[in-house]
Amino acid sequence: MKHHFPDLSRLKKAELLSGIRKEVEMKRIPSRAGYAMEELYRNYKHAVLEGGASQDKIVQIMATVLDRVLLQFEDPFTFPSYHKAIRDPYDYYIFGQNYIRPLLDFRNSYLGNVSVFDEIEGRLKQGENVVLLTNHQTEADPAVMALLLETTHPYLSQSLTYIAGDRVVSDPFCKPFSMGRNLLCVYSKKHINDEPELVDMKRKTNARALKELAILLRKGGQLIWIAPSGGRDRPDPATGKWKPASFDTSAIENIRRLMEHSKAPGHLYPQALLCYNVMPPPNQVEKEIGEKRLLGFTAVGLSVGPEMLFKDLTLGCDSSEEAAECFAQEAWQLVNKQYSVLSWAVENREGSAASTDLVALSQPCEESVQRRAFSVQSCDSRMEKSVLRSALTLWRRPANEDINDNEEDDDGEQGAEDD
């Protein structure tokens, strides 16, 4: 496999940027992609500098990311309906974790209801199925969730299977990160009619994914992540505040019925995730692949609520349609309630004091984060070791230490790449 940036431990910023420009000049990538790569580097640098990462480590991380993106232009990976995370010979799971980790402010991040995650893990190990009905905020959601759980529930972090839309398996900038996750690949209802000539193909793809999901559930012991909204949350145009997008009743009803017909017992849990500042989506849903990617160093939050029992929540319903609608609405309300608690804890800086009867808040353990910081098992071992040192430096830096974004770059230029 060809590497465009082979000596990652000694690469300088100027070499990284010139390497990108050379790829454009040789017409191995479109000029638009080259510009997007440089823009991604700048945005990433500005974000993780705030968290304490050094210029050296930023270049090394981004060189690995851009190397994997370039490979997608040369030899595109095709995702099957059911994709298992690629961990060997290159560990794409660790690759994704290492990229997102410096963007998270762990000191001010919160987990809700660790005991419920304990319950979920126990059920999975007994061969039962669990489906998380969650809101969806960014392309980084899988990594954010895995990072928040890796200290308390590493088994859950790596067991998750995500029902993923077509964008994260078709955009060359997303594909390397998606390759490190277990995915069921579908087309979102929001985009299924974008190209009329492809509607039939998309429906057949969704049918295959549904069949694969049924097979997995029959096996048992599956942890499935689904965003019934069919896309990412967006801020309220009137208030500018973020909240979970409404849920599609049919998405929940389909997976609930699949679980009912599988031999293994199945359980549904409402989950809320707050992480939009890590990688905010465009304000409006876009049809074209290749959106501009903004990044931020930010605190995040994750909470899971008690199991939802369909019979108990639909006792007063007169029809199966009404019951399905009532259950979906209740799921959305429970996600919203948890999201509100996370918002008070993270955005309003209330911390654990924002806990309620529904959500008991705690924090990822700093000491465990340091111990587990990075697994050095992927191909670029020198790269992984240097990134580990960067992460530990981030943790040791005093929280109130000022960071100069205009410090002299490695090639002697001061802020030459700034906009």
Can you offer a commentary on this structure?
It contains 14 helices and nine strands. The protein has a nine-stranded mixed beta sheet with strand order 1-5-4-6-3-7-8-2-9, sandwiched between helices. It has a single domain, classed as Glycerol-3-phosphate (1)-acyltransferase (3-Layer(aba) Sandwich), CATH 3.40.1130. Mean pLDDT is 84; it is low at 366-419. The chain is α/β, with parallel strands linked by helices and 419 residues long. It starts with 12 loop residues before the first helix and ends in a 23-residue tail after the last helix.
List the helices and strands and how they pair.
Layout: H1 13-25, H2 31-51, H3 55-74, E1 82-83, H4 92-100, E2 110-112, H5 114-125, E3 129-134, H6 141-149, H7 154-159, E4 160-164, H8 175-178, E5 182-185, H9 199-219, E6 223-226, H10 249-261, E7 266-274, E8 301-304, H11 310-313, H12 320-346, E9 361-362, H13 366-371, H14 381-396
Parallel strand pairs: 2-8, 3-6, 3-7, 4-5, 4-6
Antiparallel strand pairs: 1-5, 2-9, 7-8
Helix pairs in contact: 1-2, 2-3, 3-14, 10-12
Summarize this entry quickly.
By secondary structure, the protein is α/β, with parallel strands linked by helices. It is 43% helix and 9% strand.
Taken together, the total number of domains comes to 1
CATH class: Alpha Beta
Arrangement of strands in the largest sheet: 1-5-4-6-3-7-8-2-9
Number of helices: 14
Query: What is the helical fraction, as a range of percent?
Result: 40-55%
The named CATH superfamily: Glycerol-3-phosphate (1)-acyltransferase
First CA to last CA: what distance?
A: 34 Å
Structure summary, number of beta strands:
9
Question: How does the overall form come out from the CA principal axes?
Answer: globular
Average pLDDT, all residues: 84
Named at the architecture level, the CATH assignment is 3-Layer(aba) Sandwich
- Based on secondary structure, the structural category is alpha/beta
Helix and strand sequence: HHHEHEHEHHEHEHEHEEHHEHH
| DSSP strand content | 5-15%
Query: Which topology does CATH recognise?
Result: Glycerol-3-phosphate (1)-acyltransferase
Instruction: Report the radius of gyration as a whole number of Å.
Output: 21 Å
Low-confidence segments, given as residue ranges, are 366-419
Largest sheet: 9 strands, mixed
Main location: plastid
EC number: 2.3.1.15
Enzyme class: transferase
Catalytic activity: sn-glycerol 3-phosphate + an acyl-CoA = a 1-acyl-sn-glycero-3-phosphate + CoA
